[in-house]
Specification:
By secondary structure, this protein is an all-alpha fold. The two termini are about 15 Å apart. The chain is built from 2 helices and no strands. It has one domain. The model has no long low-confidence stretch (mean pLDDT about 90). The relative contact order is 0.18. The longest helix is centred in the C-terminal third of the chain and has 29 residues.
């Protein structure tokens, strides 16, 4: 099976920037929703979703790095 797209350094930089921005969003979410004693179930669910999204971005970045090095 042929690859449709050859991974280059630009792809890795974009992927890394996406992770960085997602982490900043996660940090902001935690600051605004989890830094006091009034934590809600909605806040916990939001945090769980954001962590999963960051996890997906890091997995994608890892796969891109692996493909790039092959």
């Amino acid at each position: 099976m042929m690859k449709d797209h050859v991974i280059d350094v630009d792809d890795l930089v974009i992927s890394a920037n996406n992770i960085e921005k997602a982490m900043k969003g996660l940090e902001s979410f935690v600051y605004h929703n989890m830094s006091n004693t009034n934590v809600t179930l909605e806040g916990i669910n939001g945090l769980s979703g954001l962590v999963e999204a960051v996890s997906c971005l890091t997995e994608k970045h890892s796969n891109l790095c692996r493909e790039f090095s092959e």
